[in-house]
Amino acid sequence: MFNFLRRGEPTVGTMSPREAIARQKNDGIVLIDVRDGSEVAASGMAKGALHIPLSILAMKCDPRSGECPPELQEGKPVVLYCASGMRSQRGAEALVGAGYEQVFNMGGFAGWVAAGGAISR
After folding, report:
1. d(Cα 53, Cα 37) in Å, to the nearest integer?
2. b/e per residue, 46-84, with b = 16+ CB within 10 A?
3. Other beta carbons within 10 Å of 1
4. Which of 9, 36, 95, 117 could be joined to 112 by an S-S link, Cβ 3.0–4.6 Å?
């Protein structure tokens, strides 16, 4: 409600799979797969992505946590994806709430695959 009062605060952006692929090649982003382990086991995941399921994302990515991946402490833009874009949006909102400033929702894993992104299994 009153979003017009929140002008200076970070918001979740969007990033296309093609742009994410290009920026990942230059080590310019941190890519996070928020799907469940069974989904990743069935389809693989974007090569170079961190696998942090949505259910533990807020705890694991808290900058004050001893479990926060070092990649997230480098100040790079963070790009999340899931199967359809719904969970990655929720995860991105949680990261913005935790203080991350450059957070993007890439949408679904199928977009990564369709754009020619490398996969690891």
Report:
1. 7
2. beebbebbbeebbebbbeeeeeeeeebeeeebbbbbbbe
3. 4
4. 117
